[in-house]
Design goal:
The complex is a heterodimer of chains A (192) and B (298).
Chain A: E1 4-6, H1 11-14, E2 22-31, H2 34-41, E3 56-58, E4 63-66, E5 72-76, H3 86-96, E6 100-103, H4 109-118, E7 121-124, H5 130-135, E8 137-144, E9 154-169, H6 176-191
Parallel strand pairs in A: 1-2, 2-3, 3-6, 6-7
Antiparallel strand pairs in A: 2-9, 4-5, 7-9, 8-9
Chain B: H1 3-22, H2 26-38, H3 42-61, E1 71-79, H4 88-102, E2 128-134, E3 140-147, H5 149-152, E4 156-160, H6 165-180, E5 188-195, H7 198-210, H8 220-234, E6 249-256, E7 264-271, E8 277-282, E9 288-289, H9 294-297
Parallel strand pairs in B: 1-2, 5-6
Antiparallel strand pairs in B: 1-3, 3-8, 4-7, 5-7, 8-9
The chains are: A alpha/beta (192), B alpha+beta (298).
The complex binds iron/sulfur cluster.
Iron/sulfur cluster sits between chains B (66, 68, 148-151, 184-185, 272, 274) and A (78, 127-128).
Chain lengths: 192, 298
């Protein structure tokens, strides 16, 4: 059976998840990448309307289109490299109380520690599968920080069974991609 | 140039650009389907299934299969007899702009050292152009590469000491992919350039990346190295998408040039599983052959 998380995400919903598990998300999800992290962490500014507490963010910069009625919709929205947000993510988690971070690839030690300390997880959505993701967005409900341009703005979406999301950092701070890296490194050592 | 011809050429470039963002080239799609078929590890198979679902949905809904449609880079072979050379850059740029706004593609281009997004993928030096002159031809051949962010990150070049030799080249490539491959959405297309300096080796690696999967260097030693590096990289098993599976790459192409004996330049450029490249030939009467996407010409 599909394991589905719903926003607001209580600690209970995520505490038993382990790295490698597959989950889906239903509820509110907002894109937030480099500029959004900088604004929250360095400029110390929160979004005006979006409440991030017990919420979910998506490291992604979408293509947004307009339908015949002029309503904006997600055309294509896959994840972007989460590692770029590593320097800011721990503080982002602390400041916002976010529970679920979705992105591409893994994140590193500082984020894993913050996930453990504040009760959050990082999940990877299959990179490049952007139309699959767009089809799981029911509607765009809001947009903030449009001054960053389309890819960097905070697009607030209503999503339904958004996934597959593979847990890459769990609430105990285990780290799937860092574990994989060790395996790849061993194979590399055999090669050279 | 007659206005109707100009509009026709702009719309050819617009369609070509949009299509390249929506449909993978024949060789890339075929290879992904082969790898998906071959893969035996269950979670890896699930990832490939997601990619194939994405490829199919993009076709059905006529949308870019990945949201990162990159910075548009056009590699143009200009026949000396092609009649519309003077306005070429303007025409291709306009086609790129219209494709961005109307497909839509993601407007990625930001101004140098600033964060201001130009909104239409056009800016100083963007789209990127590279030209070659083709004597005794009246054709225009345009190759497009959409340089996404994640897949461009691993790219680098370096000048090795000649004594480091082929082993040095292999190590450089393996190390680069070990360090950076996971986030570039593997399985990867790998282009390797061997030349004299960092810049020419990088350019050659780009040329290698533009060559279709299944083609090989005309030098037998270089072709053998393509195979060896492909097998070496596959043994790391980072694909699909860094979750781990039976492979790392879609292919490895090498372009090697005669070089200075005192240097061994090596460059690497990577494309992701969604490597978007297009190749079109436009004749002087503006009839076209969509070389990279023959299946669409039916
Ligand atoms: S690496 Fe390729 S498939 Fe992955 S997000 Fe970037 S452009 Fe898309």
């Amino acid at each position: 059976m599909k394991k589905v998380l719903t926003t607001p995400i209580s600690f209970d919903q995520i505490k038993d998840l382990k790295i490698g598990d597959t989950v889906y998300l239903t509820g509110t999800l907002a894109t937030c990448r480099d500029s959004g992290h900088k604004r929250v962490v360095i400029d110390n500014r929160m979004p005006d309307r979006l409440d991030l507490k017990e919420g979910a963010i998506f490291h992604a910069g979408p293509i947004v289109g307009k339908d015949e009625k002029g309503k904006q919709y997600m055309v294509s929205v896959g994840p972007t490299t989460s590692r770029r947000m590593e320097s800011a993510e721990a503080e982002f988690i602390e400041k916002t109380g976010i529970r679920l971070i979705i992105g591409k690839g893994g994140m590193m030690d500082k984020t894993a520690e913050a996930c453990k300390k504040f009760g959050a997880i990082h999940c990877a959505f299959p990179g490049g599968c952007a139309v699959v993701a767009a089809q799981e967005v029911e509607e765009i409900t809001d947009v903030e920080w449009m001054d960053f341009g389309m890819p960097e703005a905070l697009w607030v979406m209503k999503v339904k069974e958004f996934g597959p999301l593979i847990v890459s950092i769990d609430t105990e701070g285990n780290n799937l991609f860092e574990n994989n890296k060790k395996i790849y490194k061993e194979r590399f050592d055999k090669l050279v | 140039m007659e206005d109707s011809k100009k509009q026709q050429l702009i719309s050819i470039i617009q369609d070509f650009t949009a299509t390249t963002g929506i449909y993978l080239a024949d060789d890339v799609e075929k290879r992904i389907r082969e790898l998906a078929e071959e893969e035996t590890i269950p979670h890896a198979k699930t990832m490939y299934e997601c990619m194939i679902k994405d490829i199919d949905l993009a076709k059905e809904l006529h949308r870019p299969l990945c949201q990162d449609t990159g910075v548009l880079q056009y590699f143009v072979d200009v026949g000396t007899g092609f009649p519309y050379i003077n306005e070429l850059k303007e025409i291709i740029t306009e086609g790129a702009r219209k494709a961005t706004l109307e497909t839509p593609l993601r407007p990625n281009v930001v101004e140098p050292l600033g964060e201001h997004n130009t909104g239409d993928n056009v800016g100083y030096g963007a789209p990127y152009f590279e030209y070659d002159i083709i004597p005794n031809s009246s054709d225009l051949r345009v190759r497009l590469y959409m340089a996404g962010g994640g897949c461009s990150l691993p790219g680098r070049s370096k000048v090795l000491m000649p004594l480091e030799g082929v082993e040095g080249v292999k190590k450089f490539v393996y190390q680069t992919i070990l360090d950076w491959g996971v986030n570039a959405c593997p399985p990867l297309c790998i282009g390797i350039g061997l030349g004299t300096c960092a810049a020419t080796s990088a350019m050659l690696s780009k040329k290698a990346l533009l060559r279709p999967i299944g083609t090989h260097s005309e030098y037998p030693e270089v072709a053998a190295l393509e195979k060896e590096i492909r097998e070496g990289l596959d043994s790391l098993g980072i694909a699909p998408l860094g979750f781990g599976g039976s492979r790392t790459v879609l292919n490895v192409n090498i372009e090697a040039a005669a070089h200075h004996p005192a240097t061994l330049g090596v460059g690497i450029t990577t494309g992701c599983w969604a490597t978007r490249r297009g190749d079109i030939i436009i004749h002087d009467d503006l009839s076209t052959e969509f070389v990279s996407h023959k299946r669409l010409e039916g």
